[in-house]
Amino acid sequence: MSLFNNKQSHGVHPPGNKITANKKIERAPLPKKVILPLSQHIGAPSKAIVKKGDEVKVGQKIAEAGGFVSAPIHSTVSGKVSKIIEMISSVTSNVGNAIVIDADGKDDWVKLNKPSKIDKLSKKEILDQIKDAGIVGLGGATFPTHVKLQPPPDKKIDTIIINGCECEPYITSDHRLMLEYGEGILKGLEIMMNVLSCNKAYIGIESNKPDAIENMKKIVSESNNSNEIIVESLPAQYPMGAEKTLLKKILGLEVPIGGLPMDVGVVVQNVGTLKAIYDAIYEGIPLIERVVTVSGAVKEPKNVISRFGTPASEIIDYCGGSASNADVMIFGGPMMGIAQTSFETPTTKGTNSILIKKNTKEIENNCIRCGTCVENCPMNLMPLMYVAYVKKSMYDDLKDYWIDNCVECGSCAYGCPANIPLVQYIKVGKAELKKRGDN
Ligand code: SF4
Ligand code: SF4
């Protein structure tokens, strides 16, 4: 129950700018070197099992999971480990280790562990294969998938929601996946339904992607699947792809404050993750690459399959380079993405988009208490209070306004007439509470 549960969920309508929606997925050239951070997921960093000078092949495990909530990492090129460095995470800004591999250009693969009889695999074998493949949520959260597929025994899952919304402006990687790899997505969903013993699923897609809705409906109707799988057209409204928004819109369910979808019997998974599950189970291919939308101020915006660890500059060059006046690179979209400090920053499992922009930093003014942020918040929170309390270092008071229910969607900052970077204040507040062990 939220504080303002009598209100409607709001959200905003930023311009879509989906300029790559009709661009077929292309394969980017192999990188000359890759930089693979050991922390590319939520949870414990992976532990390196290679050292400087080791020869590696594509798909070879180079780091093991560092705990239950963790995932292994595989080499995305063949070549030689040139060094292990410390670097700042492109997501958390924390310092961690990364394995640097000089590619030999041969693209020499390890022998893949391709199961011979998929339908004979036990649930444990499937979960082990998913874990071994290093699969994490590819919608941006990067939560290890094998953990999400093992809810505690008291959390019975009766519905799966597949997130095909892609409500962030500019990004079209999931849209193209649904058009070009829909069969793999459905097969990944069937595996997931089997593992969770769940026979009902929704594939939620925003109504501004009618071709993806039509394609997924066709693929579902032509399959021999005996489960109930419904392709649901959803309003095009940001942040429709937030897990809690999806649950409310499709099932009318509200996740308890501080809770997870599994608390109301639901698991939410992104379409890209399902394709990765398909690759791992049917082809034995670990997670080494993904579709990345390259958009904004680049000469040839594209959707490209790119190996993890590729310096962003190489991918941007493949897209014709950035416009001369562009000076900002964001991993993700303009609402939730994270600005990077260098064009050499490597992509990771969570990088669904590279957005190039011109810096238009506005001057931050004082809050005029107009209420726009409250109106826009899909979680019915009061974002202006977070700014006030963080400015005064009154962190304990943040809890009274359910800051842990904030999904950091940025809807509050969108349209704030005072140009207040509300999400930055929220992140500071959450980090401070976490440091104190309160959140
Ligand atoms: S939208 Fe901006 S100015 Fe208006 S109440 Fe919220 S923080 Fe204050
Ligand atoms: S970032 Fe948080 S507070 Fe702001 S609109 Fe989104 S959920 Fe609400």
CATH class of the largest domain: Alpha Beta
- Topology-level CATH name of the largest domain: Rossmann fold
- Structural class designation: alpha/beta
**End-to-end distance, in Å?**
18 Å
Radius of gyration: 21 Å
CATH architecture term of the largest domain: 3-Layer(aba) Sandwich
Low-confidence stretches: 1-8
N-to-C order of helices and strands: EEEEEEEEHHEHHEHEHEHEEHEEEHHH
- pLDDT averaged over residues: 93
- So how many helices? 11
How do the strands line up in the largest sheet? 1-14-13-17-15-16
Task: Sum up the overall morphology in one term.
Answer: globular
Q: Could you tell me which ligands this complex binds, including any ions or cofactors? A: iron/sulfur cluster
Q: How many domains, as an integer?
A: 3
The share of residues in helices is: 10-25%
Written description of the protein model:
The structure is a single chain. This protein has 439 residues and is α/β, with parallel strands linked by helices. It has helices at residues 123-132, 145-148, 173-180, 182-195, 210-222, 243-251, 271-283, 312-318, 372-376, 383-391, 422-435, and strands at residues 25-27, 33-37, 47-48, 55-56, 61-64, 73-74, 79-88, 95-103, 159-163, 200-206, 228-234, 266-270, 289-296, 302-307, 328-331, 338-339, 353-357. The protein has three domains: 27-111 and 291-357, no CATH class; 118-283, 3-Layer(aba) Sandwich (Rossmann fold); 372-435, no CATH class. The strands form four sheets. The protein has a six-stranded mixed β-sheet. Helix 5 links the parallel strand 10 (200-206) and strand 11 (228-234). The longest helix is centred in the middle third of the chain and has 14 residues, at 182-195. Bound molecules: iron/sulfur cluster (2 copies). Residues 367-373, 384, 387, 416-418, 420 line the site of one iron/sulfur cluster.
